[in-house]
């Protein structure tokens, strides 16, 4: 993967994105999944050709928690926030720049975004939080991450020109928010249909959208490996998307090391027959390796599996 011409220069631009609503219907599910009902797995692999792995990923829960160390208040226990899960976060970053530079860019980006999200967690705790609140947090997270990568490159001349993709997924019931920069992907598998929700920010996709190239020609050209937007690159144009959450959703986030070698049809087949998120991840990884494994491969798969098969109302017996 490379940056668009001039991306290693000293001039950088940040283009604020807008909220894209992929599905604005209210979720028909009255309750969010419990922790034990979340089946999620992530993995990363260097592939069969590259000596280093420039990808990074992260999975985590956002929780309401206040740890009071000391207070004079007589009823401090009532102030302690519960440890209930407020949201779930998943991220994939694919570094650009070669060897240590690409790995450093993806690492810095995930660390910066994670820190920003943690310090902005109040937004996720509010059940009545507006979509604009999340857009603002995610936009600022992208700016923070972009600046962190740029600063690291300024501090070390050996890292100049490094950048990274970022696909960030946050589930705050009953919504899902996506932040997209670059060409790592988020797929949604639902009702037996696989849909690529994110748009590849590559020069090939730009040419396809402009009608300059047909999709088959563009994707087979060198432009398919040139990013038009990245964190740390000359241009950063984050896109935020909101979708309704559903128990029927199966989520896939991946770097292009998977999609270079595994077709959408094969991905859909794997997700359709999955018995667990781990099994799906490992099966897709093997498919990518069997297809050539020419790039680093990172995969996250997640879904909700209802306890006792009941998605709308949880029945808890006295023994639970």
Describe the model:
Helix content is 28%, strand content 27%. The chain contains eight helices and 16 strands. The model is unreliable at 6-11, 24-29 and 314-320 (pLDDT under 50). A hairpin with a 2-residue loop joins strand 8 and strand 9 (175-181). The strands form four sheets. Strands 3, 5, 6, 7, 8, 9 and 14 form a seven-stranded mixed beta sheet that branches. Strands 4-16-15-10-11 form a five-stranded antiparallel beta sheet. It has helices at residues 100-119, 122-125, 131-155, 203-210, 215-219, 256-259, 264-272, 277-290, and strands at 2-3, 13-14, 19-21, 38-45, 55-63, 85-96, 163-164, 166-172, 175-181, 185-190, 193-196, 226-227, 235-236, 239-244, 250-254, 297-304.
Give the topology:
Blueprint lengths: L1 E2 L9 E2 L4 E3 L16 E8 L9 E9 L21 E12 L3 H20 L2 H4 L5 H25 L7 E2 L1 E7 L2 E7 L3 E6 L2 E4 L6 H8 L4 H5 L6 E2 L7 E2 L2 E6 L5 E5 L1 H4 L4 H9 L4 H14 L6 E8 L16
Parallel strand pairs: 1-12, 2-13, 3-14
Antiparallel strand pairs: 4-16, 5-6, 6-7, 6-8, 8-9, 9-14, 10-11, 10-15, 15-16
Helix pairs in contact: 1-3
How would you classify the quaternary structure? single chain
- The helix fraction, in percent, is 25-40%
Shape: globular
- The low-pLDDT segments are 6-11, 24-29, 314-320
Kindly report how far apart the N and C termini lie: 50 Å
Order of helices and strands: EEEEEEHHHEEEEEHHEEEEHHHE
Number of helices: 8
CATH architecture descriptor text: 4-Layer Sandwich
Major β-sheet profile: 7 strands, mixed
Mean pLDDT equals 84
Q: Might you state the CATH topology name?
A: Phosphatase 2c, domain 1
| CATH homology-level superfamily | PPM-type phosphatase domain
Using the CA coordinates, give the radius of gyration: 20 Å
Tell me, what is the CATH class? Answer: Alpha Beta
- Portion in strands: 25-35%
Structural classification: alpha+beta
Q: Using DSSP, what is the number of strands?
A: 16
Domain module count? 1
């Amino acid at each position: 993967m490379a940056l668009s011409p001039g991306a290693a220069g000293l001039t950088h631009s940040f283009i604020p994105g807008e909220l894209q609503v992929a599905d604005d219907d209210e979720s028909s599910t009255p309750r969010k999944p419990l922790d034990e009902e979340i089946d999620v797995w992530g993995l990363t692999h260097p592939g069969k050709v590259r000596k280093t792995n420039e990808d990074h990923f992260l999975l985590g829960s956002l929780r309401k928690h206040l740890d009071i160390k000391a207070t004079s208040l007589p009823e401090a226990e009532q102030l302690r926030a519960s440890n209930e899960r407020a949201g779930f976060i998943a991220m994939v970053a694919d570094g650009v720049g070669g060897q240590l530079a690409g790995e450093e860019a993806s690492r810095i980006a995930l660390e910066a975004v994670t820190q920003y999200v943690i310090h902005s967690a109040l937004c996720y705790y509010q059940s009545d939080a507006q979509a604009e609140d999340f857009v603002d947090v995610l936009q600022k997270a992208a700016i923070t991450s972009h600046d962190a990568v740029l600063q690291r490159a300024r501090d070390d001349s050996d890292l100049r020109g490094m950048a990274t993709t970022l696909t960030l997924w946050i589930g705050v019931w009953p919504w899902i928010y996506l932040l997209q920069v670059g060409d790592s992907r988020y797929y949604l598998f639902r009702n037996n249909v696989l849909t690529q929700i994110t748009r590849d920010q590559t020069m090939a996709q730009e040419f396809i959208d402009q009608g300059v190239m047909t999709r088959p020609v563009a994707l087979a050209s060198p432009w398919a490996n040139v990013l038009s937007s990245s964190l740390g690159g000359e241009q950063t144009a984050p896109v935020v998307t909101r979708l309704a959450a559903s128990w029927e959703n199966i989520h896939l986030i991946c770097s292009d090391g998977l999609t270079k070698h595994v077709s959408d049809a094969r991905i859909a087949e794997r997700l359709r027959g999955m018995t667990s998120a781990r099994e799906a991840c490992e099966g897709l990884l093997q498919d990518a390796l069997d297809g050539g494994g020419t790039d680093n491969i990172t995969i996250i798969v997640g879904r909700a599996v209802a306890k006792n098969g009941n998605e709308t109302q949880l029945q808890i017996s006295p023994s639970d």
